[in-house]
Amino acid sequence: MSNELQHLVDALAQRLRQPVAIDDTAFRLLAYSGHGEDVDDMRKAVVLTREVPPEGLAWLQGFALSKAAQPVRLPANPALQTDPRIAIPVRCQGMHFGCLWLIEHEPIADTELAVAVSFAGQAGELLFRERILSELQNARAGELLRDLVSDDLEKRGCAAAQLTENGLFASRGATVVLVVLAAPADGSDLGEDDRLALSMALDQAAHSVPERECLRMVRPTHGVLVTTEPAQRHSPKLATAVHEAACRLLGKAGRWRSVVVGVGPAVPTLADVVTSYRGALQAARVADAVPRFRPVAKSGELGVYGLLAGLPLDGLTDGPDSTVNRLLEADPTLFATAELFLDHAGDARTVAELLSVHRASVYQRLRRIEQVTGVDLADGEQRLALHLGIKAARMQRLV
To answer: Signal peptide position in this chain (predicted)?
Structure first.
């Protein structure tokens, strides 16, 4: 938050000779003046953590302060050990930005309250101006981010330079990309409301990383968040936060085949971000196709699926007479048995334990698999071809 807001708070506190604070619409502290020893417990907690404790938040939400047009007097709350206080809405151009707070140890005169209301108006104008500037910066950063992940090498270099030179992104260490992919169950495209929900999810998750170490945009099928590796280490649950916010804001769980997040590899420079972006998008697509990778898939942990994701899969599973299709049509349990057998390097005992069947049943199924597919499971190359075909079927969501 700008120094101007802090100067405004300090000036009002000096004029009224009492502590002043301004918070945002989520009751997160934006600026505050010096406080004496007689400050109540909730204000102390807010100053220390910059957030209202959960029990205090529930109490404040009951006053519907976002809808208030005039100062609201809140009574003391002995259970929360709070003194009486006054909330003055901070507004500009019809937009609500939060509240300016005064603790009312002694009744505040109307003349002093009028001064505080005037200062709240100035704070609203300041926050409105900062909002506009922030939106312009975000729009510019979004344009440069599109160039940064394009196929044009020259564009990528220019975009990286401009983002750094204009102070829109601080390249502190390696850079990492997260992709949030929402796949409608009916295969339709994302609507405008869906893209807005993804944008809001990215904005919410971005609160946990430094502002100048975060870029984000929404593409027709997915959202993109770029951050630094140090920021990601500091916020290890960032990918989970993105996923949770997207699920919450997209709503209607039955409408989605999946909502997943892919994490790309760390790359040394901002100009290399396209590599991390492609890895993150690939990881998200694998997680969409293969449930065991959900909800967050990392590009370096995809195994054989990482190899298959970059290849045309049709040739491995196409046609009614393909090995995999013959196996699926014969009996789905044969497909599952073959996959487990190949995943566990031909260990029939482990397969039997995983399927909860006798080992003799596994051997019977293996013979049946060889009959149906024409594959000799004792031949390494034939086993590999069948294994790849099975994984390709998973990628194509044939099973």
So the answer is: none
For the stretch 79-131, pLDDT in tens is: 998 999 999 999 999 999 999 999 988 889 999 999 999 999 999 999 999 88
Residue pLDDT, tens place only, 224-241: 999 999 999 999 999 999
- The CATH T-level fold of domain 3-128 is Beta-Lactamase (3.30.450)
Enter the pTM of the model. 0.67
Q: For domain 314-395, is the CATH number 1.10.10.2840? A: yes
